[in-house]
Each structure stands twice: as structure tokens, then as C-alpha cells.
């Protein structure tokens, strides 16, 4: 999670970067731009000195050696020089236009630097590895046509992926409120899922829908979500290894640094055999974020009682009842307004090019222009939400409930309503 105003320097988020981290960000931007301009880029890692290694001490009986004598001086540090990373658009199966398009479609209403920093942190600031990971994510998004969960409405998705809406109506997952750190909380009711009840492609698409829709609910400076796997009433028939593998891959490879906290709640004894299979799939960084909870009261360490649904008896106070809000006729009419769409998209594109020009200026001169980039990033966020009605179908978080309230507002902010 990034709470910029509270994060100390060096945590790797916008506004907290050390000079070395800022240099890595600039190098990643430069490599990404060069790849688009030339079709190939070579990223040469910076040499990293290894720790001093004491040399073996020869046996001695004199005062100059042995237990009480001076040891042989450590060997000089030798730089560790990693092999250059060479990437070409042809080998990646991407064009320069696809790379640029995927970049800005990923930014959405966020800060452009934030996207690149996610991949740098995930690869421990190795620029070549971060660029490789970023481009693999772009390639994955192209291959799976991730954009269709944005441009297609729920009814269209249901027609394309059988029983898609049924999964939403069942409440297999729901997002309700925030935790103590401001992270949106995603609840997964595992007992409602059975692998054979729907096509695997439908579940895959539902997972992508959850990722892409959930991103809209994250409010800057927060960058992550909390995930609660509720295993109440779990049985082996609910286990879907293919889905778990896909979910793990998404978080670790394609949406890195998006998970803040993972709670596995109320796991029965039978789950431990399952866990032995799943645990090796997890990156150590992700595994370190997992905590097992067994009593509902333990959830209060993460979530305020006022925000926790009262279905967690004895802990939650929010009288929350999940209800899927169905599509409203005409809600996506703006997507057919080609005149206003073209104007909104052109204004967005102009800001993207303006941001890119500031990046190129930073690369060329070396002068820090983060304040200017920050100002453009704010304009980009404002313009994105002006453009969104013309390019993206509505989701249930934007629809109004029986009280006439919606969670996602037109300007991208969220308003959660709790019933205590």
C-alpha cells in the first residue's frame, strides 16, 4: 500500500523515491521509449558490489594468527555484472503501437509512474527484469483480450461467456468497504464455487473482471486491496486448482504489487492438504502477506467493526447484504456517441503525449521535473473520468441502488455506505 504522505523515503512509491530509485524509474522509462522507437532495446544492469568475503586463515601457533591473532584481510569486493537484457518487439509479438496503447490503458486514472514502479518493486529494482515483466503483462493482456471486460456490458459478457452474470448474482465475490488502511476489501465466498458448474473460460473472465473493476475502487494514494478467502463451509468439492493457479498468476505476474493483505479465514482441517499443494506456487513476497484467521474477532485487526459485514457474527456491525445491481437500459449509450468520444479521447491522448514529452525531457537533461509530471498526472486523472463514459461500459459499482446511491462516482472517487 502507498500512503505517500506517511511513507518514508525509499519505500518505492511516487513521492518517496530515493535518488537511486528515481534513476531506476528514469532508466525504465528510457528503455520503454527506446523499444517503441527502435523496436529493440538493450538494458545493461548496473554492477552491484558483493559483500566482502573473509579469506581462510592458515593455522598458526604464533601471536600473529590462530584464535587470538589477526585474521587475513577480506578480499576486495568484486562487482557482480549481470548479463544485459535484450528485448525486441518482434520476439514479444507486439508492435510499438500496441505497447503504447497497453501502457496508457493500464494507467487508467492513476499516475503513470505508479504503474512502472509496481513492476520495478516486484523485480527488486532490476530495470531489465522490470521491463521484461511489464512487457509480458502487455502481451498477456493482448492474448487474453483483457479490454473486453471494459468495453462489453454485463449482458454482453454473459452472452459471450455463459453463466457470467450468474456468478455475479450468486455473490461468489463481493467488494464492500475499506479496511483500516483504506484498502478496498474483497470477500470471496469459496463455498459457493464448484469447478464443474460453469465453463473455465467464464471463471477466468470473471477473475479478470474482478481485477479490472476492483482497480477503479482503489483511491490514491492507496495502491492495494485486502483479500479475504472465507472458507466457512468449505469442502473439497469447492476446490478449483485451475482457478487458484490463474488467480496467483494474475497477482504475481500481471498485476504486481496490488495485494496488500490476504486473510484465509476459517479454514477447516481438510484445507491443509490443499494448502500443501498451493503454497509452493506462491512468491515469497506474496506468501508473507498471508495470514490465517479462525475467529471472526480476528478480522477486526484489519477491518473496523463498522465496516465489517455482520454476517461475521460477533465481530461485524455493518448490516450488509450483497445484492447484484443489474444493468440499466441505456446506461452505455454514451459509448455510441462518436463525436463526443472522439473529442474526449483526443484530449486524453494529448495529455499522454505531454507526459511522454516530460519523460523524454527528464531523460535528456537529467533535471528532475517530477513536479511538472505530477501536475500532468492530475490532469490525466481528471480527463480519464471525463472520457470513461464513452469508452467503458458501466459496472455494478456505478449503478444506483434502491436508495439512489452508487459507490463509484463520475469523478472516480468512491462513497461507501455502511449500515450500523
From TrEMBL:
PROSITE patterns (alphabetical): CRAL_TRIO (PS50191)
Pfam family, one: CRAL_TRIO
SMART domains: CRAL_TRIO_N (SM01100), SEC14 (SM00516)
InterPro entries the record matches: CRAL-TRIO_dom, CRAL-TRIO_dom_sf, CRAL/TRIO_N_dom, CRAL/TRIO_N_dom_sf, PITP/CRAL-TRIO
Domain CRAL-TRIO residue range list: 161-320
The protein's name: CRAL-TRIO domain-containing protein
Organism taxonomic ancestry: Eukaryota, Fungi, Fungi incertae sedis, Mucoromycota, Mortierellomycotina
Amino acid at each position: 500500500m502507498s500512503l505517500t504522505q506517511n511513507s518514508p523515503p525509499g519505500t518505492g512509491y511516487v513521492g518517496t523515491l530515493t535518488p537511486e530509485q528515481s534513476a531506476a524509474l528514469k532508466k525504465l522509462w528510457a528503455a520503454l521509449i527506446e523499444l517503441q522507437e527502435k523496436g529493440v532495446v538493450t538494458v545493461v544492469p548496473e554492477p552491484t558490489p558483493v559483500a566482502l568475503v573473509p579469506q581462510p586463515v592458515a593455522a598458526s601457533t604464533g601471536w600473529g594468527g590462530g584464535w587470538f591473532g589477526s585474521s587475513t584481510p577480506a578480499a576486495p569486493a568484486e562487482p557482480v555484472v549481470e548479463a544485459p537484457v535484450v528485448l525486441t518487439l518482434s520476439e514479444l509479438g507486439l508492435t510499438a503501437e500496441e505497447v503504447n496503447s497497453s501502457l496508457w490503458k493500464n494507467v487508467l486514472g492513476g499516475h503513470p509512474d505508479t504503474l512502472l514502479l509496481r513492476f520495478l518493486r516486484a523485480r527488486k529494482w532490476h530495470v531489465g527484469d522490470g521491463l521484461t515483466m511489464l512487457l509480458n503483462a502487455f502481451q498477456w493482456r493482448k492474448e487474453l483480450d483483457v479490454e473486453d471486460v471494459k468495453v462489453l456490458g454485463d449482458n454482453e459478457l454473459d452472452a459471450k461467456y455463459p453463466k457470467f452474470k450468474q456468478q455475479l448474482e450468486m455473490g461468489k465475490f463481493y467488494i464492500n468497504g475499506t479496511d483500516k488502511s483504506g484498502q478496498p476489501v474483497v470477500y470471496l465466498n469459496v463455498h459457493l464455487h464448484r469447478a464443474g458448474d460453469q465453463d473455465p473460460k467464464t471463471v477466468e473472465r470473471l477473475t479478470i473482471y474482478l481485477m479490472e473493476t476492483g482497480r477503479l475502487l482503489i483511491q490514491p494514494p492507496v495502491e492495494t486491496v485486502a483479500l479475504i478467502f472465507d472458507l466457512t463451509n468449505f469442502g473439497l468439492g469447492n476446490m478449483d486448482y485451475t482457478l487458484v493457479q490463474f488467480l496467483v498468476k494474475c497477482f504475481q505476474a500481471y498485476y504486481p504489487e496490488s495485494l496488500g493483505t490476504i486473510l484465509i479465514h476459517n479454514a477447516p482441517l481438510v484445507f491443509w492438504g490443499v494448502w500443501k499443494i498451493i503454497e509452493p506456487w506462491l512468491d515469497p513476497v506474496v506468501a508473507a502477506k498471508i495470514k490465517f484467521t479462525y475467529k471472526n474477532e480476528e478480522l477486526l485487526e484489519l477491518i473496523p467493526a463498522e465496516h465489517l459485514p455482520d454476517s461475521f457474527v460477533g465481530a461485524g456491525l455493518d448490516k450488509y447484504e450483497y445484492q447484484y445491481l443489474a444493468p440499466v437500459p441505456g446506461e452505455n449509450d454514451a459509448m455510441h456517441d462518436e463525436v463526443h468520444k472522439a473529442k474526449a479521447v483526443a484530449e486524453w491522448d494529448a495529455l499522454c503525449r505531454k507526459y511522454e514529452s516530460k519523460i523524454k525531457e527528464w531523460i535528456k537533461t537529467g533535471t528532475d521535473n517530477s513536479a511538472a509530471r505530477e501536475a500532468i498526472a492530475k490532469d490525466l486523472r481528471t480527463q480519464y473520468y471525463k472520457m470513461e463514459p464513452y469508452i467503458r461500459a458501466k459496472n455494478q459499482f456505478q449503478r444506483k441502488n434502491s436508495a439512489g446511491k452508487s459507490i463509484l462516482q463520475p469523478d472516480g472517487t468512491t462513497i461507501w455506505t455502511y449500515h450500523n
